[in-house]
Amino acid sequence: MFIFATHQQENMENKITTNSFKAWLLAARPKTLTGASVPVMIATAMAFSTAKLSIQVIPAVLCFLFAFIMQIDANFINDYFDFVRGNDDETRLGPKRACAQGWISLNAMKVGIAVTTIIACLIGLPLIFFGGWEMIIVGVLCVLFCFLYTTSLSYLGLGDLLVLVFFGVVPVCLSYYLEMPDGMKSIPATVVIASIACGLVIDTLLVVNNFRDIDNDIRAGKKTLVVRLGAARSLHLYLALGVAAWALGFAHFSEHPFAALLPIIYIAFHVKTWLRMKAIAKGKALNMILGETARNMFIYGLLTASGFLIS
After folding, report:
1. Which pLDDT belongs to residue 7?
2. What are the backbone angles phi and psi of residue 157, rounded to the nearest 5°?
3. d(Cα 41, Cα 176) in Å, to the nearest integer?
4. Given this model, what pLDDT does residue 85 score?
5. How confident is residue 5, by pLDDT bands cut at 50, 70 and 90?
6. Of residues 293, 251, 247, the one with CA closest to residue 270
7. Using an 8 Å Cβ cutoff, are 163 and 199 in contact?
8. DSSP class of residue 241?
C-alpha cells in the first residue's frame, strides 16, 4: 500500500498518468535510440560507398526499424526485470524508470515487452528475402540475448561483450551484407573493423552507466566489468575504448582517408567528456556524462559515415 501510494503521489507531482502515452514514451527512452541507429548508419554509408545507387533500400529501412524496435524492447525488459529484482530502488542514481515510478504497471509492461518483441520479429522477417533463412537464426539470437542481458548476463560482467557483438559486429556486418545487391554480397575486412570500432564506441555508454551505478551494483551482486575493474581502472577503460575505436579506423581505413581522419573530431569530444567524468567521480551528476557520451557516440557515427560517403 505504501509503495502504491508513493507511486501515485509521484505520478501526480510529475503529472504522468499511469500507462499513458507520455508514460510509454518515457519508458521507451528515446535518447537511447542513437545507440541503435549508429551501427546501421555506418553500415549503410559503407554499403553506399561500394554499391552506389545499386544499394538495396528496403533492407536498409528494415534494419533501421528492427534496430529501433529492439532497442525499445530491451529498454522495456530492463525496466521490468530490474524493478522486479529490486535494483531500481530509492538508491538509484540514474534516470527514473517507468515501473519503479509507477508510470507503467507491471502487467502493462509485460504486454509492452510482448508487443515490441512481436513487432521486431515481423519487421525482421522480410530480411530472409535478402539474406536467406539464416536471418531467422540471427533474429532469434537478438531476441534471446535481449532477454538474457538484463536477466543474467549483465550480472556476470558480460554486458560489454554483448554490446560489442550486438551493437557492433552483428548490426554493422549484417546491415552491410543485406544492403549490398546480389552478386556483391560479402563482408570485407574493412566492414569487420568498422563494426568492432562501432561496438567499442557504444560500449562507452555502458561503461559510464555502470560507473555511476557501481555502488548499487555491488550491493545487488551485479558483477559488471566496472565492478570487477574498480572505479579508477574503469575511468581508464572509458578513455581507452574511444581512442581504440579511432585508432582501429585510422590504421585500417587507408582506402577511405576521410573515414580515417574525420573521427579525430570525436576524440576531442570524448577526451573532454572523460576529463569531466574524472572531475565528477560519482553521484547523480554522472547522468550529465551519460548524456554527453550518447552525444559523442552519435557524433562518431555521423563523422565515420560521412567519411565513407565523401571517400
Report:
1. 41
2. 80, 20
3. 10
4. 82
5. very low
6. 293
7. yes
8. H
Q: Which has the minimum average pLDDT: 76-90, 193-207, 246-260?
A: 76-90
- Chain centre to alpha carbon of residue 52: 28
Measure the CA–CA gap between 243 and 238, rounded to whole angstroms. 9
The three cell numbers locating residue 148: 538474457
H or E stretch including 152? none
pTM score:
0.90
Q: Which of 241, 234, 232 is nearest to 167 (CA)?
A: 241
- Would the pLDDT of 8 be above 90? no
Residue 31: band (very low, low, confident or very high) from pLDDT cuts 50, 70, 90: confident
Q: Name which of 310, 187, 300, 176 is nearest 249 in CA terms.
A: 300
* Residue carrying the nine cell digits 526499424: 65
Taking a C-beta distance cutoff of 8 angstroms, is the pair 20, 108 a contact?
Answer: no
Residue with cell 570500432: 197
From CA 221, how far away is CA 138, in angstroms rounded?
31
Euclidean distance between CA atoms 172 and 164, whole angstroms: 11
Residue whose C-alpha is closest to residue 214's, from 202, 228, 195, 200: 228
Sequence letter at residue 103 = W
Do residues 304 and 249 lie in contact, with contact meaning Cβ atoms separated by under 8 Å? yes
Stretch (H or E) spanning 31: none
